Every structure is written in structure tokens, then in C-alpha cells.
Amino acid sequence: MEKLVLPLILLLIFSIFFVEAVAIVPKFVELQCKRTRYPNLCASSLAAHLNPKSQDPQEIAQVALKVSIVKAVYTKNYLRIVSKELEQKKAKEYQVVKDCLDQMSDSVSQLTNSFKELQRMKSVEYSEGDFAWCQSNVQTWLSTVLTDSYICMDGFDGYPMSGKMMAMIKARVLNVAQVTSNTLALFNGYAAWHRANSNAGSGGYGKKEP
């Protein structure tokens, strides 16, 4: 399964984040990012990768999820490099970094599952029961990523690692937690919009805010 997932993740990395350009934040994106815990980060991370004319709540949630995947993969790869260096040095910090690597590896899997589930939710054949089941899955997996991230950071308490290494690890893991928190908020907004419009028909996200 992981061998099948890896090409997808690499594709996302090169198609979305090969270059992070500064972009003007569309008003619609700015408004939706206000529902998140980190609105400035939300707006800056999404603006360059969304159609500026998009009014599609699922597209916003999907792009936000891709952002989380890319950040998690980068962090996982960084932790793998650091853990190998510490293992070779037989450093006492090796185990805590290895534990964090395991947490981030799990996060990549949870995010990838969420992405695939969100893709399934596009199907017009889905009943409301199917949608609710998928919604619950995505919410659970994204919440697990947040838990993994904070467990990772808490694990470094009491370890006198070099300042630069500690700061780099914590900054990267915290970034994963922040963008994933935003993703969860945007996904919840999409799910609320879907429930509000599934019976009456969708008049466009811009016409009826969740």
C-alpha cells in the first residue's frame, strides 16, 4: 500500500510546492480562512495553489489537505536524515527523534487516507450515509495527525539537544500541526456546506456560506 501511496505524494510535492510563489489572496479564500485557527498561514499557503475564481468548498479543503501532506512529507524526510545522523553518533537523542519520525510517518499515512477519502466524497453516487461515514473518517484521521504532532513535540521536553536542531524539528512539526488544524477547519466548513445544500441543491458556495 505504501508503495502505491508514495508516487501520489511525490506528484503532489512537485505539482504544488515545487515553487511557493507569493500570490494575491482572493477575497473568497480570505473569508474562508477566517474560520481557521491560523488565518494568515491559511491564506498564504492556499493562495498560490487555488483557482482565484474558485467558489468550490471541496476544492479549498482538498488543496489545504495537499498542503498538509507536502509539509508532513518534508518533515518526515528531515527527521529521517536527523535520526540516521544521531544513530551513527550513538547520541542519546536518537530514540526521541526516531519516535518523532514514527509519529510523522503515521501522520503521512493518515493524511494520505484523508486525501483518498475526500476524493471518494466527490462521487455523485454517494448517499448521505456514505458522506457522513467518510466525513467521520477524515475528521478522525486529521485529528490523529494533530495528536501525533503534539506527542512528537512533547517528547523533546528535557532533552538538551543542540539549539539549532531542536528549533528546526519543532518548527517543522509545529507547521504540520498548524496547516493540518487549518485543513480540519476548512474540511468541516465544506461538510457543513454540503449538508446545507444536499437536499435543496447547491447554489454555489459564494451564495450560501456554511
TrEMBL record:
Residues 24-186 form the Pectinesterase inhibitor domain. InterPro entries: Invertase/methylesterase_inhib (IPR035513), Pectinesterase_inhib_dom (IPR006501), PME_Inhibitor (IPR051955). It comes from the Eukaryota. GO terms for cellular component: apoplast; plant-type cell wall. Residues 1-21 form the signal peptide. Keywords: Apoplast, Disulfide bond, Secreted, Signal. SMART domains: PMEI (SM00856). It is found in: Secreted, Extracellular space, Apoplast. Its main location: secreted. CDD domains: PMEI-like_3. One of its GO terms (molecular function) is enzyme inhibitor activity. PANTHER family: PECTINESTERASE INHIBITOR-LIKE, PLANT INVERTASE_PECTIN METHYLESTERASE INHIBITOR. Belongs to the PMEI family. This is Pectinesterase inhibitor domain-containing protein. It comes from Capsicum annuum (Capsicum pepper).
